[in-house]
Design a protein that fits this description.
Layout lengths: L1 H17 L18 H20 L1 H16 L3 H8 L4 H20 L6 E2 L6 E2 H22 L11 H9 L1 H6 L11 E5 L5 E4 L7 E5 H8 L11 E3 L1 H8 L24
Parallel strand pairs: 3-5
Antiparallel strand pairs: 1-2, 3-4, 5-6
Helix pairs in contact: 1-5, 1-6, 2-3, 2-4, 2-5, 2-6, 3-4, 7-9
Length: 265
């Protein structure tokens, strides 16, 4: 399954960025909700473990989800993640990377249409591993920003574009808004220079620009105002203002300028 290989490439890109950090730098604060590099790796590793259990150990996954929902109800989700994942610094980086390699290998051999359990509705194996790639890409952006580095994007980002496209209705319903009958026409420039199009071209609502910037908005790593995306039509504007391609309660994007510039260690 190509999406599993894309997940591995995304993991490799983030690993290469972080692997030279010393122990103190893992406690540096990013622009994502004040999370440190350690916080981000804990979160990524926690959900990789859940994805692995969902594919291979259904009973273990069910038990983890029972404790997960209990933690949500008590407002202690972050504490629960940190209780499960105790490693920090380079030790955490090592186990996150090794588990990611195993996860990518496991998913590469399954039927993309196989159903797997998740915290919300179940999903296809293809969507599950694409969502894991999206998480690495989105949370990794905060670390790239922290270190003042630009990520080299590739064709694998199309998986995140597709998640964003498929979350059109979710971006409305999660905010309690009625879902329009038709999504805007989407015309994006891929990193290779190719053009990716979704929807019907004859449409007053059009979103166009760089695929990377579209992904930044739907994963809420950038405010739409900090991109060069062209957004025409009321539906397009509402869609991008409320874009959310991840599960959970409604979230708001960063304020304009809040995450538009990289900072230095």
């Amino acid at each position: 399954m190509q999406q599993a290989h894309d997940f591995l490439e995304e993991t490799e890109a983030l690993y290469k960025l972080i692997k030279s950090l010393d122990e103190t730098e893992f406690e540096k604060t990013t622009l994502f909700k004040g999370w440190t590099v350690n916080d981000i790796l804990v979160h990524l590793h926690f959900w990789n473990i859940n994805a692995h259990a969902s594919l291979n150990e259904s009973d273990k996954f069910d038990a983890m989800m029972e404790r997960f929902f209990s933690a949500i109800q008590s407002g202690k989700l972050r504490a629960y993640e940190n209780k499960v994942i105790k490693e920090r610094g380079n030790n955490l980086l090592k186990i996150w990377y090794e588990t990611s390699q195993q996860l990518g290998s496991d998913f590469s051999d399954v039927d993309p249409k196989q159903r797997v359990k998740w915290a919300g509705p179940d999903m296809s194996a293809r969507t599950c591993i694409s969502a894991r790639q999206m998480e690495v890409w989105a949370h990794g952006q905060a670390i790239f920003d922290l270190l003042g580095q630009e990520r080299v994007e590739g064709a694998r980002i199309k998986n995140i574009v597709i998640l964003g496209v498929n979350a059109f209705g979710w971006s409305y319903s999660v905010h309690g808004l009625p879902v329009p009958d038709a999504m805007p026409f989407l015309r994006l420039d891929a990193p290779s220079g190719a053009v990716w199009e979704f929807g019907h071209a004859i449409n007053p609502n059009v979103i166009s620009g760089e695929a990377t910037q579209f992904c930044q908005v739907v994963t809420q790593t950038r405010n739409i105002a900090d991109t060069d995306l062209s957004v025409a039509g009321k539906i397009s504007q509402t869609r991008m203002q409320n874009a959310q391609c991840f599960a959970g309660p409604p979230e708001t994007p960063p304020l304009p300028g809040e995450r538009s510039k990289a900072i230095k260690l």
